[in-house]
Every structure is written in structure tokens, then in C-alpha cells.
Design goal:
By secondary structure, this protein is mostly beta strands. About 15% of the residues lie in helices and about 35% in strands.
Length: about 160
């Protein structure tokens, strides 16, 4: 049996050990994971990139959560991990020439395929946040969107 000084030392020692653990280490939380399925990829050139953006970063180049995969005709599957629950919009593009940006033609029309969550409409300019936004609850979630090409062939090449 411990006397009161020894019991106090054990209690303080245990408290110090717990305070050295990373925040959240005492309880385990499931890893968040958003699977993004992008259909209508027209060819196997380059890669497909998707970014999960809060409103302040939507349509900008500074979205914190992103994933990419080699392009394949038809469907691209991308998984983004570590996203906290919240409201987001996904912006994606088929980077056919590998320059890590959406190439544009006259009047800003994308030369490469683009996609947005909820298949948000693109009318005389980029989609609105409200049309592309969705709630991410954490855990595992999946969404689907269709790549749209404004120049050249649209969709996978027919054989």
C-alpha cells in the first residue's frame, strides 16, 4: 500500500505522461476519407487532380486537401484523407499535358476537362459556391461528378 506522498507522486507522474501525448491520442477517432469518382475522362494522357475546398479557397489554387491519379479513359477514382467535417466543394481537372494547371483558351474557356461537385452548372463562367457545396460529415463518404470538356472531343474515345 502506498502512503499519501507516494500516491501523490504516482498521480503527478501519470498526469505528466498523459500531457506529453499528442492531442487526441487518448481517444481514437476514425480517419476521414472522401472518395471522388470522376466520370467521362476522355483519354489516358496526364493525370486527374481533385481539390476539396472550403468556401474561401474555392476556385483558387490554395485548397489544402487534394489528390491526383494517372488519367484513364472513362473513370478516375481519387481518395482524399484527413478532411475535418465541414462544408466543402470539389474542383477537379484532367491535366492532359502535366503542367499542373488548367489551360485556358480565349475568354478563359478551359482547354482541359473540368469537374465540380454536384455537377455544378457552368454558365458563362465558373460555377457558384452554393451550387457545388456539400456537407462532409467525416468518416467515409463518396461523391461523383462528370468531367466536362469544352474543346476537342468529350468523353472517352470510342474504339
Amino acid at each position: 500500500m502506498l502512503d499519501s506522498k507516494a500516491a501523490m507522486a504516482v498521480t503527478i507522474g501519470a498526469g505528466l505522461m498523459l500531457s506529453c501525448l499528442p492531442v487526441g491520442a487518448a481517444r481514437s477517432t476514425p480517419q476521414s476519407e472522401l472518395t471522388i469518382r470522376i466520370t467521362n475522362i476522355r483519354n489516358a494522357q496526364g493525370e486527374v487532380r481533385a481539390e476539396v475546398c472550403p468556401q474561401a479557397s474555392f476556385l483558387r489554387d490554395d485548397c489544402r486537401y487534394a489528390a491526383s491519379a494517372p488519367a484513364r479513359p472513362g473513370v478516375a477514382l481519387l481518395t482524399v484523407r484527413g478532411i475535418p467535417p465541414g462544408r466543402y466543394a470539389v474542383q477537379a481537372f484532367h491535366d492532359e499535358n502535366g503542367n499542373h494547371r488548367v489551360d485556358r483558351a480565349l475568354f478563359g474557356i478551359p482547354r482541359e476537362g473540368v469537374a465540380f461537385s454536384n455537377d455544378a452548372p457552368i454558365r458563362f463562367g465558373p460555377p457558384k459556391w452554393a451550387d457545388a457545396a456539400f456537407a462532409f460529415t467525416g468518416g467515409e463518404q463518396a461523391i461523383q461528378m462528370k468531367a466536362r470538356y469544352f474543346m476537342g472531343p468529350s468523353g472517352p474515345a470510342l474504339r
